[in-house]
Write a structure and sequence with these properties.
This protein is about 50% helix and about 15% strand. It is an alpha/beta fold and about 375 residues long. The termini are far apart. Bound molecules: NADPH dihydro-nicotinamide-adenine-dinucleotide phosphate and magnesium ion.
Length: about 375
């Protein structure tokens, strides 16, 4: 039977690759969305003929509505629009590829409507992991990872609950553009330096998160929630070639790895076709050609983000969301040239110091806490 999905963030790096996978695998796209890139949205509307298109920014929604009034696609707006396209009766699954905490509310709405979640938007799990996982469990909804490391672990586990035999998960990390650098060498790096990722082409926010290694910290938190493990059972290993996407180690010493060429289309496709596998045109792995794979311990002293995230998930409650909110604002301040690279982490540390963790009980509470942290960071700069 043909699958029907909605794509949140269809104009982004993951979103556009998702549309390519859907085209190749004959998955019907019922709805797409973006913040304000209405030129690309219009092209996507004309090509994929979705029932709905959600635009977050109201003014851009108005323009798009005028521009596509010769089509049958309905324009919906803002958070309400994102939630509407996440709960459509015709869809089986929602692929969430927006960037940032904006993905949390529509994800919760989709869970409530019993839609399978294909999750790329890791900030949703960092900020609202406890709430999302408990609601998903209650509704019997599956959260299928799109993030390549978590897809790798999910594939290694092969649907089995082997938790009593698991020793640890090993998340691989490319190390980003600043691998091997010292703190003093990072003092004056530019936005352009930080955006120059060695192995992945991604949206700006996650590329900066990869340069600070906050991305790997977030992935530790994401793994804790997805696989129900404490942070000390999750190791990080630098692997420059991005061929092994992650590994699991059993108590008897056996290690399983998932490998493949570094393309996000593989984990996107697996999340959309799970539990089946369909053949794809993606470049296949040729280990004889690659010859060598290299591995290094992460440098937690220079890249403090991983320990900051470990600490936050250990504290629990609102601590991870404080890290997420502070980081979102700090990254955008760095991208607009208002702060230096190393200040990103300093701002996150200030936020953690300033906000005492509280138990998480509702979306409202999360969004209010998120807002306070954002205001706090802006007041510091
Ligand atoms: P991009 O910046 O390339 O794309 C983000 C998408 O979200 C765009 O479609 C953007 O619209 C949309 N968007 C942003 N803000 C809003 C908003 N307020 N309301 C509605 N839509 C919004 O990001 P990526 O594709 O790189 O990443 C998306 C998510 O996937 C992130 O959470 C990232 O951490 C995760 N991820 C990404 C990977 C990658 O390889 N790129 C790998 C693993 C995880 P517009 O175009 O209008 O700005
Ligand atoms: Mg990843």
């Amino acid at each position: 039977m043909q699958k029907n999905i909605s794509v949140l963030g269809s104009t982004g790096s993951i979103g556009t690759q998702t549309l390519e996978v859907c085209e190749e695998q004959n998955i019907k796209i019922r709805a797409i969305s973006a913040n304000k890139n209405i030129d690309l949205l219009e092209k996507q509307v004309r090509k994929f003929k979705p029932d709905f298109v959600a635009v977050f920014e109201e003014n851009f929604a108005k323009i798009l509505k005028r521009n596509i009034n010769d089509t049958y696609t309905k324009v919906v707006v803002g958070m309400e629009g994102l939630c509407e396209i996440s709960t459509l009766p015709k869809i089986d699954a929602v692929l969430t590829a927006v960037s940032g905490i904006v993905g949390l509310e529509p994800t919760l709405a989709a869970i409530e409507a019993k839609k399978t979640i294909a999750l790329a938007n890791k900030e949703t799990l960092v900020a609202g992991g406890e709430l999302v996982m408990s609601r998903a469990l209650k509704s019997g909804v599956q959260i299928l990872p799109v993030d390549s490391e978590h897809s790798a672990i999910f594939q290694c586990l092969a649907g089995k609950d082997n938790s009593q035999f698991l020793k640890k998960l090993i998340l691989t990390a490319s190390g980003g553009p600043f691998f091997g650098k010292t703190k003093s060498e990072l003092k004056n790096v530019t936005v352009q330096n930080a955006l120059n990722h060695p192995s992945w082409s991604m949206g700006a926010k996650i590329t900066i998160d990869s340069a600070t290694m906050m991305n790997k910290g977030f992935e530790i938190i994401e793994a804790c929630h997805l696989f129900g493990l404490p942070e000390y059972k999750i190791d990080v290993l630098i692997h420059r070639e991005s061929i092994i996407h992650s590994m699991i180690e059993y108590i008897d010493g056996s290690v399983m790895a998932q490998m493949g060429t570094p393309t996000m289309k593989t984990p996107i496709q697996y999340a959309l076709t799970y539990p089946e596998r369909l053949s794809s045109e993606n470049e296949k792995l040729n280990l004889a050609k690659i010859k060598n794979l290299s591995f290094f311990e992460p440098d937690n002293k220079t890249f403090e983000a991983m320990d900051i995230c470990r600490n936050a998930i250990k504290i629990g409650g609102t601590a991870p969301l404080v890290v997420n909110a502070a980081n979102e604002v700090a990254v955008s301040l760095f991208l607009s040239g208002k702060i230096k690279f190393l200040e990103i982490i300093e701002l996150v540390k200030s936020a953690l110091k300033n906000f005492k963790s509280q138990k998480v009980s509702s979306l409202n509470q999360i969004m209010n806490a998120d807002k306070s942290v954002r205001e706090f960071i802006k007041s510091l700069v």
